[in-house]
Amino acid sequence: MRILFAGTTYVVGGAERVFAHLVRGFRERGYDVELLALRELGPVGEELRAEGVVCHAGFTGQQRVDATLLPRLARFLRTHQYDVVYFLDHAHAVFYVTVASIGSGVRVRLMPVHTTGQWGGARSLKRPIRLVRRHLDRIISIAEAQRKYLVETEGIPDEQIVVIPNGIPIEPRTDAEVEALRREVRLEVSGRDDVKVVGITAVLRPEKNHELLLAAFAQVRKAVDAELWIVGDGPRRPELEARARELGVEGAAVRFSGSARTRVGSCGFDMAVLASHPLVETLPSPCSRRWTPALRWSPRAWVRSPRWSRTGGPDVSSSRGTRRGWRTPSARSSRTRRAPRSTRLAAQRSCGRATPWTRW
Hints:
This protein is of the alpha/beta class and 360 residues long. It has helices at 14-28, 42-50, 69-80, 91-101, 127-132, 144-152, 175-190, 210-220, 237-247, 262-266, 329-333, 341-351; strands at 2-7, 32-37, 54-57, 84-87, 108-113, 138-141, 161-163, 196-201, 226-231, 254-258, 271-272, 292-297, 302-309, 316-318, 321-323. The longest helix has 16 residues, at 175-190. The radius of gyration is 22 Å and the shape is elongated.
């Protein structure tokens, strides 16, 4: 079976990393896999090329519309005779490759969705994807809550969606091996193994909301001997480093480690956190779009707020005041209200309460 993995380009990000693991997994199992990038390969694509994956790139430039792209893609697909096309959910690639693949011999087209709504209130499925959606054999949801969102909010037929949770590669280790690795990583990164480490692994983009975490950590740092490790890279690194300097936590307190050793760096965490707006992340729990617990912080602890948002998203409180929920028509027309007590307790049990920093 010949499988083409297709996207526009492959920058460093969580969805791209999952995509790359899938390419490697099918290749290791003996499938004939190739990678297509309509523009440049990007860092993740270059990694796969270095590992021996056959890659095709440079079909078009940065323009949104390319009149010559469809016939060139159609010739490419007819020449290579792929059985399956698996998309990264890039609207540009999904539209052009889907249209070009009609009549080319491609038997199955699959596309995963990694969000429950986009940053800024946009839909997960952009208009170019919706135009060709009926030609996709399956849309893959990574959580049951996300499936409900796609059906109820974006109008995707339930029979077109299949739920396949993200696979997480876990290397079996004994407790002693885990502790030894933790000590080794901490000595390598900070020069000491007795420090408390808070960590975040996320691409440095606006939707990941690193500013909120930096502001909270600046308060915690006044009372707790701890370090914040920011694992990941992206276009906002200079801006976030400047923000850390403004808050007085640059240097040994906050460490930007980049993305070169993502998995190893996270082995040194005592607490892993995610500061993104809850609508940006897809969680396999009651923490879904319908009842999303707001994340708030105080100088004493990270806590789950008892304030809930029905449809417009939660309010997020920080030192700069309260950010209101998503600016969508539903958010403007709905009031923020408390969920029923039984619903709040169920979600708290599922999501867990954050650990107060002062317990360290």
